[in-house]
Amino acid sequence: MQNFSFRNPTKILFGKGQIGSLDGEIPTNARVMITYGGGSVKKNGVLDQVRAALGGRTVLEFPGIEPNPTYETLMRAVELAHREDIDFLLAVGGGSVADGTKFIAAAIPFKEEPWDIVAEGTPLSEAIPFGVVLTLPATGSEMNSVAVITRQATRDKLPFSSVLVYPRFSILDPTTTYSLPARQTANGVVDAFAHVLEQYLTYPVNAAVQDRFAEGLMLTLIEEGPKALAAPEDYDVRANIMWTATLALNGLIAAGVPEDWTTHMIGHELTALYGLDHAQTLAVLYPATMAVCRAGKRGKLVQYARRVWGIDNPSDEAAIDEAIACTRDFFESLGVPTYLADYGIEANAIPQVIDQLRRHGMVALGERKDVTPGVAEQMIALCLKADRSTGLNARAT
Ligand code: NZQ
Ligand code: ZN
Question: Which CATH superfamily is domain 182-382 in?
Fold first, then answer.
């Protein structure tokens, strides 16, 4: 196991009715700005519950944070917060609202050009406090220190991270997820699954409990994901998915192990260029990451095949093939297509994505920093479409 330090300061309030706890989490004299997205929280009644719980506090609303939150929109929130002397933010929504709120919290007291927080990774010296009421289990943003922000004008989609943007608290009420469209439920399961893979599918370092935690999270997603699509208002299913997605990216399973993140970084470019949902990019790219990085990941791929998918083929190579096919089938079974052709994207995407990766300095990705633009090119080429002419189909990539 590698050395690590681990601290996660976010308080989690989990379960039905927990929105009522907001009153105890935010100072009574706070000037609060509620941030939210395109209106789902109005339709499903979550915003009403939040406003009721905040009682007599001074509360402003900033709606309109879009999926893949943009710098352009978020800067309008920063201006409003300055004008209104806001000192507490409350994100009500999915990962995009949580991420956007992290940026707003960091940008409000920031003295220079706020885009530098993202583009240059300029360290923060302060951020204003915020909490999250999560309505979409997927990103783990509710209990981590990362945000992914897009600058529309330049088609940059980049992450930033700071210990100052851990949420003070996050409320996870599974009933808020009943209203999710099937596409977003499936996206959440795929994203959380990919987060586990990024921290698990590297090389073995004898981190026994991290491996078992990671496998437990993946098995739970495999079991519960289809149930959430079949029975959207099953509390226990929604609760299990919600807590699994949080644990998949809150630092716990990353402690003491190598991390990859190749698939995410290439995926962000696909979203920036072509507008695919975050999870769609992961469903397309992950089978190709496994195939192209097969040699470096061999030990963990075999472990993944045997412990997660229960594959008992005596040949390790055949077991890996089957595990890659099972991964693709799982994403497809949730209704998330796994080839670029399914999204109308063709081979001319390859040079465009590679250009973006170079522009963003993403030229040495992966747990061994050996995913060069050339390797990324091979991955994207594998994603274009199922090659049925050679007998290679969706199951044989
Ligand atoms: O905007 P509204 O109207 O709220 O609708 C949203 C949005 O259209 C809808 N939705 C959310 N909760 C709902 C609901 N609809 C009905 N009922 C509910 N309860 O779902 C749509 C997608 O929401 P979004 O927040 O964009 O999805 P998600 O949570 O998947 O977040 C994706 C963003 O997070 C970033 C992604 O790159 C992407 O920008 N990520 C953040 C990470 C982090 N902070 O650690 C890590 C991830 O890998 C990821 O990169
Ligand atoms: Zn993700």
Answer: Dehydroquinate synthase-like - alpha domain (1.20.1090.10)
How far is the centre of ligand 1, averaged over its atoms, from the C-alpha of 351 (Å)? 28
Q: Where in the chain is the domain with CATH 1.20.1090.10?
A: 182-382
List the shell of residues around ion ligand 2, using CB closer than 5 Å.
Answer: 191
Q: Residue 79 to residues 85, 86, 94: CA-CA distances in angstroms?
A: 10, 10, 23
Q: What's residue 389's pLDDT?
A: 56
C-alpha 325 – ligand 1 centre gap (Å): 27
Distance (angstroms) between ligand 1 centre and the Cα of 30 equals 27
Output the CA–CA distances (angstroms, integers) from residue 45 to 53, 185, 360, in the order listed: 13, 18, 40
Question: How far apart, in Å, are the Cα atoms of 153 and each of 72, 252, 267?
Answer: 8, 36, 19
pLDDT category, 213, cuts 50, 70, 90?
A: very high
What token pair was written down for 321? 């093939």
Helix, strand, coil share of the chain (percent; to 5): 50, 10, 35
**Which class does domain 11-177 fall in?**
alpha beta
Regarding predicted confidence, which is higher, 387 or 161?
Answer: 161
Task: Copy the structure tokens of residue 117.
Answer: 């927080």
pTM of the model: 0.97
The C-alpha atoms of residue 340 and residue 337 are separated, in whole angstroms, by: 8
Distance 136 CA to ligand 1 centre (A): 6
Surface-to-core class of residue 7, CB atoms within 10 Å of its CB (0-12 exposed, 13-18 middle, 19+ buried): exposed
* Rounded distance from Cα 1 to ligand 2 centre (Å): 25
User: Which residue from 41, 96, 198 has its CB within 8 A of the most atoms of ligand 1, so it is best to mutate?
Assistant: 96
The 8-class DSSP code of residue 70 comes to B
Pocket probe for ligand 1: among 10, 34, 40, the residue whose CB has the most ligand atoms within 8 Å is 40
CATH 3.40.50.1970 spans which residues of the chain? 11-177
Q: Which helix (H) or strand (E) holds 53?
A: helix 46-54
Q: How much is the average pLDDT of 89-109?
A: 99
Pocket of ligand 1 (CB under 6 A): 37-41, 44, 67-68, 93-97, 99, 135-136, 138-141, 144, 146-148, 176-177, 179-180, 184, 187, 191, 249, 264, 278
